[in-house]
Amino acid sequence: EDVMQIILNVKGLAVKSYVDDEKVVELDVEGPAEITAGDILTDSDIEIVNPDHYLFTIAEGHSLKATMTVAKDRGYVPAEGNKKDDAPVGTLAVDSIYTPVKKVNYQVEPARVGSNDGFDKLTIEIMTNGTIIPEDALGLSARVLIEHLNLFTDLTEVAKATEVMKETE
């Protein structure tokens, strides 16, 4: 593989950090071997969720020592945002994609509760990379949405005073 392909493979890592601080993980390998995410040396603060993820093949007589920085964040950070002024020569800054949710589907169907058929049933299907469970992803995304939309509820007294949720028996 060329460097670009290896970088793309590294970006496919699913890494879970149990601490808020940045952590450094290491890769120290010798050929011949197929190198996977499971070959990355971590401590108890970092979990490689997809250890079978292929990174690259290293030929006989060759070796590689590399370090990677693991951080927690949200959304997308371009490579420029990951560059550090004090980084050693030869450091490759890579963009970071902090999006554990890979795909979401939803379906709304009519539903009956007792003799009343005026309800809807919402089914949500969430697929993640394994660094977060779907229930937590849904809860976190709902919380983010609520916080963003709360900005609008303070605009008028009518919005504040209106009851929107009905109690069902």
Task: Explain what this protein looks like in three dimensions.
Belongs to the RNA polymerase alpha chain family. One of its GO terms (molecular function) is DNA-directed RNA polymerase activity. This protein folds into two domains: 3-98, RNA Polymerase Alpha Subunit, Chain A, domain 2 (Beta Complex), CATH 2.170.120.12; 101-161, Gyrase A, domain 2. The chain is 22% helix and 37% strand. It starts with a helix and ends in an 8-residue tail after the last helix. A two-stranded antiparallel sheet has the order 1-4. With 169 residues, it is α+β, with helices and mostly antiparallel strands.
Summary of the model, kept short:
Residues 1-155 form the DNA-directed RNA polymerase RpoA/D/Rpb3-type domain. It contains four helices and ten strands; from the N terminus they run αβββββββαβββαα.
List the helices and strands and how they pair.
Elements: H1 3-10, E1 15-17, E2 23-30, E3 33-36, E4 46-48, E5 54-58, E6 63-70, E7 75-77, H2 79-82, E8 96-98, E9 101-113, E10 116-128, H3 134-153, H4 157-161
Antiparallel strand pairs: 1-4, 2-6, 3-5, 7-8, 9-10
Give keywords.
alpha+beta; two-stranded antiparallel sheet; 4 helices; 10 strands; Gyrase A, domain 2; 169 residues; two-stranded antiparallel ribbon; RNA Polymerase Alpha Subunit, Chain A, domain 2
Our measurement of the CA-to-CA distance between the termini, rounded to an integer number of angstroms, reads 62 Å
CATH topology of the largest domain: RNA Polymerase Alpha Subunit, Chain A, domain 2
Q: How much of the residues is beta strand, in percent?
A: 35-45%
Approximately how much helix is present in the residues? Answer: 10-25%
CATH architecture annotation of the largest domain: Beta Complex
Let me know the number of strands: 10
Biggest sheet overview: 2 strands, antiparallel
Protein name: DNA-directed RNA polymerase subunit alpha
Domain DNA-directed RNA polymerase RpoA/D/Rpb3-type: 1-155
Keywords: DNA-directed RNA polymerase, Nucleotidyltransferase, Transcription, Transferase
Enzyme class: transferase
